[in-house]
Amino acid sequence: MNFRLPDGMLLGVASAAAQIEGGELNSSWNDWYHKGNIKDGSDPAASDHWDRWQEDTDLMASMGIQVCRLGLEWARIMPEPDRVDEDAVAHYRQELERMREKGIRPLLTLHHFANPMWFEKKGAFEKRENLEDFLRFVQLAAERFGDLVSEYITINEPNVYAVNGYTFGIWPPGKRSVPLTISVMSNLAYCHIRAYQIIHKTRLEMGYSDTMVGFANHLRVFDPQNPRNLWHRGCARLTDRMFQGALSRALTLGEFRWPIRNIGRLPRGEYADFHGVNYYTRSTVSGVGDGVRANSPRNDLDWEIYPEGLVLCARPLVEMLNRPVWVTENGTCDNQDRFRARYICEHLQAMAESDLPFVRYYHWCFCDNFEWIEGNSARFGLVKVDFDAARARSIKRSGEFFAAVIRNGGVSEELYDTYVRAEEYEIR
Predict the structure, then answer these.
(1) Domains of the chain: residue spans and CATH
(2) How far, CA to CA in Å, does 183 sit from each of 126, 267, 340?
(3) N or C, which end of the chain has less CB nearby within 10 Å?
C-alpha cells in the first residue's frame, strides 16, 4: 500500500475536557459517576490532563501533531451561574499559548456533553428559557480566548447527547422520552446557530476576520440488514432522518424539517464554515434501533469497522453545502493496540482516494481517557495512560505510526510493512 495525503491536509488529535482533565467538579458527569452509573466503576480523574497539560502538549509536539481539538469545561470556568473562575480562564489561556508556541493549531470545543450542575438542575437544554445561560458562556469564551483561537466547535454531537441522555437514559440526566429528545435536539440547533453568530460577531469586533465555526456532527451509515426487505429499508431511512439527517440540515442551513423545530424562528442561512464529521462505525438496521452486521470486523466495543463509511457520510454534507470536511473525530477502541494502526491507515486511505475536500483529520483520542459510561476500560488513545497514581504516559505503536504518517505526508510501502501489514481485525 502506498498513498499520499491531499496537499495541505493537517493531522492531529482530539479530546474532551471531561474525559481527560480530572478533578472533582460539580458537573453532570461527575454527578453521574457518584450515582454509580459507570460500568467499570472508574471516575473521571482519567488521565489527569489538568495538571499534566504541559507534559501532554510537549508530547504532542514530539509526535509532530499539527492540529489539536480540545474542550473547555464549562463547570470549571463558570462554577456558579454568575461567577467566572479567573484562575481557570488563565489556565486554559496558558495551555492554548503553549500549543501555539509548539506550532499546534487549536480547535476549541465549547460544549462536549458535560454541564455544570447548576445548569443541569435547571433542566439544561430541555427548556427554552435556559438557553441564554449557554449563550452567555459562548460569549465569554469568544471574548476571553478569541485572540488565541480562530477555530471553534460550538456543540459536540448534539444527536448523541440527546439520544443517550433523553431516549435511552444511559447518560445524564437519565430520562426516556422521545418528545423530550426532539425538544433537546431543537434547542441545541438553536444554540448552535446563535453561537455561530456570536463567535463571528465577537471576533470581528476584536479585529479578526479569520474565524471558522462549525459543529461536530456524529454520523454513521445506516444500512438495511436485507436491502430487499421493505421494512428494513424503511427503518434505515427513518433512523437516519431521526438521528442525523434532519438535525444536520437544521444546524448547517437553518432548514428545519420534521422532527426538528425552529424554536427561535431563525432564518435560513449558512451556519457552518466547515463540516465537522465524527465517524466511527456503520449500523445495520432491521427494525427501530441499532444493529451490527454479522461476520464483520469489530473493535473491542463490538462496533463494526467500516472505513468507506467515512466518505459515504461526508458526501451528503458537501452536496448540501460546499464546505471543507474536517474529520473532527475518528478512532477505535483497541485495548491492546492490536489493530489501531490498520484502522487509521484505512480511514486515511479512504479520505485520500475520495474526491471530497477532506482537509483535516483529528484522531480520537490523543491519550487513553474516561470513555463516558465505559469508564477507563475502553482505550482509544495513541498514547497509553497508566490509570494509577503515577498516570505515566507512553506512546503506543499506533502513535508511532501516526507520527510517521505526519512526517511522511502519507503511507509508504515501508511504513505499511513496518506498522500495518501484520495487524488483523477480529471478525464476528
Answers:
(1) 3-427 (3.20.20.80)
(2) 6, 19, 37
(3) C
Backbone φ and ψ for 21, nearest 5 degrees, come out as -75, -40
- Burial grade of 319 (CB within 10 A; 0-12, 13-18, 19 or more): exposed
> Model pTM?
0.97
**Cell 503506543 belongs to which residue?**
396
Burial tier of 233 (Cβ tally within 10 Å: 0-12, 13-18, 19+): middle
What CA–CA distances, in Å, run from 293 to 222, 304, 362? Answer: 11, 7, 26
pLDDT digits (tens, 9 = 90+) for 266-277: 999 999 999 999
Cell (9 digits) for 30: 461527575
Q: Tens of pLDDT along 369-407? A: 999 999 999 999 999 999 988 899 999 999 999 999 999
Q: Which helix (H) or strand (E) holds 153?
A: strand 151-156
Beta carbons within 10 angstroms of residue 41's beta carbon: 11
Q: Which DSSP string do the residues of 80-139 spell out, in sequence order? A: BTTB--HHHHHHHHHHHHHHHHTT-EEEEES-SS--BHHHHHTTGGGSGGGHHHHHHHHH
d(CA 259, CA 247): 9
The number of residues in the chain equals: 428
pLDDT of residue 389: 84
Rounded CA separation 18/75 (Å) = 10
pLDDT tens-place string over residues 51-63: 999 999 999 999 9
Distance CA 268, CA 117 (A): 33
Greatest alpha-carbon span in the chain:
60
Which H/E stretch holds residue 70? strand 67-71
Outline where DSSP puts E strands in 195-302: 212-224, 275-285, 297-298
CA atoms of 203 and 211, how far apart (whole Å): 7
Give the three cell numbers for residue 171: 447518560
* Residue 1 and residue 420 in contact, taking contact as beta carbons nearer than 8 Å: yes
CA distances from 255 to 105, 246, 260, 273 (A): 32, 8, 9, 16
